[in-house]
Structure formats: structure tokens, C-alpha cells
Predict the 3D structure of the following.
Amino acid sequence: MPADMEQRSELLRAASDLVHTREQFVASMGALEEEIKRTFDWREWVRSRPGTAIGIAFTVGLFIGRKT
């Protein structure tokens, strides 16, 4: 295989790898964004931990009630 053909083949392979890596990165960032949204969504947090949420609400209510 001539040097030009070999170099072109390597460039095409590198470009293909770059595109594949970019696609993986975009997919990972999308998944991370969804996970962050779900983690910091108070509705989801309360849905998954109702007892803890009630306890926190009760404690905050006591704290506010004592201040007034």
C-alpha cells in the first residue's frame, strides 16, 4: 500500500473514532443532565422518600412555630 493511501486510511479511521467518541460523549452528557435534574427535583425526592420529607416538614414547622 502506498504511503499516501496508508496515511489517508489512518486519517479516515481517526475521523471515524472521533465521531464515535463525540457521539458517546453527547449521550453521556444527556444522561448526566437527566440524572442531575432527577436528583435535584424536590418532587422526585419527596416521592422517593416520603417519610423523610414529612419529618423535615414537621421539624421546619416546629422551628418556625417556636420563632413566632
